[in-house]
Amino acid sequence: MMNPMRILLTNDDGIYAPGLAALERELHALGDVVVVAPATEQSGVAHSITYLTPLNVKEIFRGGEDGDRRWGWAVTGSPADCVKIGIQQFCPGEPDLVVSGINNGLNAGINVLYSGTVAAAVEGAFFGVTSFAVSLEFEEHAQFDRAARLARRIIEQVLSQKGPEPQLYNLNIPTAALDGSPQVCVAPMNVTRYDDSYEKRRDPWGRPYYWLKGGPPAPAADHPTDLSALAGGQVSLTPLDYNLTRQAVLADMQRWRFFEPDASNP
Question: Per DSSP, what are the bridge partners of residue 119?
Fold first, then answer.
């Protein structure tokens, strides 16, 4: 009999976020789940880690059928911290799968580079573990249970078809995909700069402050990406890589010459 899959679950919305709870319930169908998540919301922290101050970790319990059960560990750090310390301290053996989410808000396009949700999955990939970032289109009363069921089914299908090598995936679910028969679109991330700007305001004392506003660019119709898939009501699934080296340019640069040897001027 095969041992159950070991799954590390985290997020960036915090350990009490409803999206995390919904995904935890669904992932039990795939294996044993260990929850290690930030004690407070960490949206937009990207891949920051804590090293100048200690990490405090608190064991969290919640009501279950047999009374209080261990829910997980709350970490006073970033999502990447949670995965790093979760794998090294709180998982009974290296996990077979790392899942980050469900985030309340999409993490597509260049938001991938800012996202704490995606960064947690990237950290899992650093350890050589297949990892998923899972995000749902923002709604005040988001349907996390439906999204979690859909995410779990897609994760199952990916695991049944992928090769043996670990892989990092970014999964985004639009609200429109939660009804009917959702379609999954495998697409690259859109790298167009967002149309962001800052609105200048004044506080009650007349002091200026600035508030970032704006949103994703309109997806190009002739170039399918994660943003165009989501705009069409499809689930977007993107394989990611954390190696930022531009290989073609690297090969060209390695032929460049910078300094001529000069024995008289060491």
Answer: none
Sign, CA dihedral 246-249-252-258, equals negative
- CB-CB neighbours of 89 under 10 Å: 12
At residue 263, the pLDDT reads: 58
Exposure pattern of 1-16 as b/e (b: 16+ CB <10 Å)? eeeeebbbbbbbbbbe
Residue 60 phi/psi, 5° resolution? -110, 135
Mean pLDDT on 211-234? 84
Contact of 166 with 158, CB cutoff 8 Å: no
Q: How many CB atoms lie within 10 A of CB 34?
A: 19
More confident residue, 129 or 264: 129
Burial (Cβ within 10 Å: 0-12, 13-18, ≥19) of residue 192:
middle
Q: What is the pLDDT of residues 154-190, one digit of tens each?
A: 999 999 999 999 999 999 999 999 998 899 999 999 9
Backbone φ and ψ for 147, nearest 5 degrees, come out as -65, -40
Question: CB-based burial of residue 61 (10 Å sphere; 0-12 exposed, 13-18 middle, 19+ buried)?
Answer: exposed
Tokens of 160: 């049944």
Give SS3 for 214. Answer: coil
User: What's the chain's average pLDDT?
Assistant: 93
Domains contained in the chain, CATH given = 5-190+219-253 (3.40.1210.10)
Pairing of strands 97-104, 67-75: unpaired
Please state the rounded mean pLDDT for residues 12-18. 97
Considering Cα of 76, then 79, then 82, then 85, what sign does the dihedral take?
negative
Q: How far apart are CA 263 and CA 6, in angstroms?
A: 60
In the numeric block, the tokens 């995904």 are attached to 23
CB neighbour class for 150 (10 Å; exposed up to 12, middle 13-18, buried from 19)? buried
Q: Which amino acid is at 261?
A: P
